[in-house]
Structures are given as structure tokens and as C-alpha cells.
Amino acid sequence: MSPPDDRSAEGGGDLNRPGQTKGPVMEGYNFAYLDEATKRMLRRTILKAVAIPGHQIPFGAREMPLPYGWGTGGIQVTAAILGPSDTLKVIDQGADDTTNAVSIRRFFTRVAGVATTERTAEATIIQTRHRIPEQALREDQVIVYQVPQPEPLSRLEPRRAETKRLHSLADYGLMHVRLYEDIARYGHIAKAYDYPVMVNGRYLMAPSPIPAFDNPKMDRMPALQLFGAGREKRIYAVPPYTEVRSLDFEDHPFRPIRAPHACALCGSRESYLDEVITDDRGGRLFVCSDTDYCSGRVALREAAE
Amino acid sequence: MSTLTPGFADPVLDAQATFRAVLEAMSRPGRIQRAGTGLRPPAPMMPAAAAVLLALADSGTTLWQDAGTDAEAWLRFHCGAPFAAMPAEAAFVLATGAPPVIADLNAGSEEEPERGATLIVQVAALEEGAGWRLSGPGIEREHRLAVTGLPSDFVAAWARNRGRFPRGVDVILCAGERIAALPRTVAIAEG
């Protein structure tokens, strides 16, 4: 057995599969946890999803060793595409060091022996919950979104049979009325996350609960974007360089929202910020939600000093 | 019956590598990927076409092929996929000779376009940088792809296939160990 390296401090014996990345992986599991028949089903679904941009495709979601709402859809998509030469990054609300991100990274280290990273630039697959990294993604990267509710019309039309029909007819008047009602009531579109988009001019799509700030990054992104919803059992995709337009009106154009502050750590005025409450007397500060972006900028500044 | 040649040397990792090649091909139409290195499927099946079917077809997908009895026995053993009597009934259609008319294949429904078939066509040669001008999702400006060995009316048939989006058929072109894909969204201009 090879000595444990720094990226996998635990796990069972070696799988000893030719071509497999070395590193202790758990015995008794297939590569990347899922059985091959399940992977084939997922892979067929993913290919059709790429061929029909923005269209939700039902799939036989399996029970995964984590609860619904923690990324069961994303983790199944990642398991279906992951190979031994991939480098995996997992973020939760932009952070690499939160429970969800750490446990999913450790899961794939243990069941697939893949390399993991916290650096956006080093990753070939990025699984994300509710953010798109600040650093622009490249052609050789794939981003996998964890999706709680894949149906953008779900709050407006609860019947699945009916939303399917609306998608087939490209009848999205319901959503336009919903946005219009916001304008009539509040004077602006009051949707800060999971802001609906049109993909390739045909399908209305839920971008997962990323902030509306991130929506423009989806438009003509060089990387392939895959979406997995485990509880709702749907997969959809946006191919590279595909038009993704946030819904809006001519007189109320889409505006990405960002807190009007600079990051307290790195000073960025471009990145998406989290508000952190520091005491019970109203003290607060704003920091980058993307931890890799922020620490990279801090390191650059320290190197310059 | 002749002796059956082996499938993937590593069923898990070879299937994954083949799938990623197909995914990359489908995501970037007209870019050529490699698949099936080392496979020796019965003639006239090419290694790339055999690899695509090994990676994606199984007991849950219907298959139609025109490659003859040796190929059928090979696919039955390695994929375990049920064979369809007609191309129109199949989820995967393998064409080693003249491909069936695209309009005759299953194109899915308006509500479930994902049921549209995947047509795997073996061609004589695939080259990037010349020939067709491709545009659509997955392509930044234009990809060029030269395909040798398709029927002369393919581009016209493809325009009709693309015209009924979201219904449609997706095509995977195979030449030896090279593959390129044409998802139903891609527009083909000749020359």
C-alpha cells in the first residue's frame, strides 16, 4: 500500500486499477461510487441535455450517501463525468472550506482517488452550490451546479404535466407577469437569486440559486455547464458559448446586484460580497464570497509589499 | 460464429474516457476527439463506433445496426442491448453503410425531445479546418469540419432535422478512432 499523501489522509486500501491515480481509496466501491449502469444512464441523459440546451431531462436519481439538499444531483453528475486525470474543486456559496464543500471533496478523494484543489485555475471539474467563481472559466473546465428546484415555473404552476406543456410551447408568459408584478409593486424586479434565464432563445431555465450577479457569467461561457437536481430528478445543461439571457423588459433592463462596498480583506470592488455580522451593536463587514479569488488577491498584495 | 473479440480492457475507466470524448464532441460540434483506441470490433464496425456503443448502450436502450451478424453478436454480448426491428424504434442507430433517412428516426416529442435517437454514422474520413462551416451552441464563431463519405443530401436532411427543434436526432460521426458530433442545434453551411 502506498503511503498516504497530503490530499487524502484517510481511506482504505488501494484499488490497484491500471491507470488509476494513486492514493488510498475506499475498498468495495466502484470508481466514483456509482455502478456502471447508473453512470451510463446519467451519461446518456447528460448528452441529450447538451444537445437540447436548457431543457430539463428526468433521470433515475439514486440515493446518495448525503441528504437531499446537500448536492445529491450535482454529486451524481460529477460522478458520471469524473475520471482519474481530473482535478476536482467543490465550492459552497463560493467557499472551499465549508462543510458541504469539504465533505463532497473528501467523498470523491475516497471513492475515486482523484486530485482535489481549491484553486479555480487548477480545476478541470468545479462542482458548485450557488455561486460561479469570479475567475473566468476556460474551455477545458466543466462546471456542475447543484440545483434544488430545476423548474423555473414551479412557484407559478405546481403541476409538472402543465409546466412540461408550457416548456414545449415556449409559453413563458407566466414568468413575465410575475416579473411585471414585481415592478408594479416595488418599482423593480425583486429577485436577487435564481433569476430566470432564457437559454439559446428557446428554453426558460432556472440557473440554480446563484446570485443574479452571477447570471452574466453564464452567457457564452467557454466552459460546459451541467446542472443536477437530485430530489427533483432532473438534469439540464448549457453548452459552451451559448446565449444565456436574463429575463427583463426594455424599460426595466436586467441589473446584477452587488453590495456597494469593497471587500474588507482584499479590497475588491468587482467581486460578489457576503455580509458578515461582527458584533451585536450593528458592526458588520463585507468580504468576498469566493474564497479562492479573495485569498489569491491577498497573497498578490502581500507579495507586492 | 467467429471468435468474439474483447470489449474495453478496463470497462470502468475506458467507458469514462470514451464518454468524456463524446461529451466534448457533443459540447463543441465539429471538434474531433479520439475514442476506441485498442478496440478490435468485428468488421465493418470501427473502433470509435464500437467504443461509443460500449460506453452508452445497455439493456435500457434499444439498438439498430446494419453491420451484420458478427457485429450483432459482439454488441449483444458486450452491451446486452435489445435490438430493434426498425431504425425508427431504436434509441441508438449504428450505420456502417448508407445511413437511414434522418426523418424516419425517432425524434422525440415536443414535451420529451430527449427521446430523439442518437445516430452513429461511420464515414471514410473526418478532418478539422476545412469543409462544412458549423455554427450554433458550443461554437464560439465557426468550426470547420470536412466529412468524407456521407450521402450528398445529408446537409439538406440535416437542415430539416434542425428545423424541428427541440425535436430531432443527434449524430455522432466516426472515422476509425476519430469522432465528431452534430447535436440537433448545430447549423451546417457547405463550403
UniProtKB/TrEMBL annotation, chain B:
One of its GO terms (molecular function) is lyase activity. Keywords: Lyase. GO terms for biological process: organic phosphonate metabolic process. Pfam families: PhnH (PF05845). This is Phosphonate C-P lyase system protein PhnH. It comes from Neoroseomonas oryzicola. The gene is phnH.
